[in-house]
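Late entry, written up from scratch paper. The run itself happened at the end of the previous shift, but nothing got recorded in the book at the time, so transcribing now.
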Amino acid sequence: MLYVKDAIKCTEIIVPDEISIEFIGVNMSLSVEMSFTVICLYRPPSAKVDFYNEFKTLLTHI
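Output as recorded:
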C-alpha cells in the first residue's frame, strides 16, 4: 500500500501482466522542475532466482 497526499499530483505505473512481481509504483510531480518515481515491492523469502530477471524487466519497462 502506498499513501500519497491529495495535494501531490501522481499517476499509477501500470505494467504488463507477464511481470508477476508484487509492487506498486507512482510517478509524482511536485512542480514543473521536480518529479520522481516511487516504487514499493515485496520479494517473498520463497522467491525463485528468476525474481531478479523479472525485477530487471520491471525497471526497464518503467
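The helical segments are 51-61.
(Scratch paper discarded after transcription.)
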